[in-house]
Structure formats: structure tokens, C-alpha cells
Amino acid sequence: MQTIKVLGSGCANCENTAKLIQQIADDMQIEVTIEKVEDIAQIMAYGVISTPGVVIDEKVVHAGGIPDKDSIKGWLASNK
Questions:
Q1: Is-above-0.90 flag for pTM?
Q2: Are residues 32 and 22 in contact, defined by beta-carbon separation less than 8 angstroms?
């Protein structure tokens, strides 16, 4: 099971990013755990200035805005 962190203050884009990742993971039949990180100090520790940010295996794969579906599919497929 993959653990994916969504970094952000809990804004609508952050919530939508988490939901979109979960939806695509379900469609691809990949088990994921979505962890929301809302603590500013933790977000800054990843070097993310624009949220939402997405972290997979402690590596930032996205920052700023809702990621597109193809990017999410690529992240999930490469981390099976």
C-alpha cells in the first residue's frame, strides 16, 4: 500500500486533490493511504511554497494547483 501525502491548509484545492488521487487509485485498483499534512512547518520542510503539494515516498512530485489525471496515473503506476 502506498502512502501519499497531500500538503496544504485544508483549502478546496487540497481537498479536491486528495479526492481525485483516491478516485483514480480506486479506478486503477491500487491501495493507497491519503495523509493530509496541514501543519505549515511540515509543509515548508518539504520545500513546498504553493499548495496543494503531493508527496510520494517522501519525494515531492507536485506543488501548486490540482494535478491533472494523467500525472496522477503516472505516479500511481510507477509506484506500484
A1: yes
A2: yes
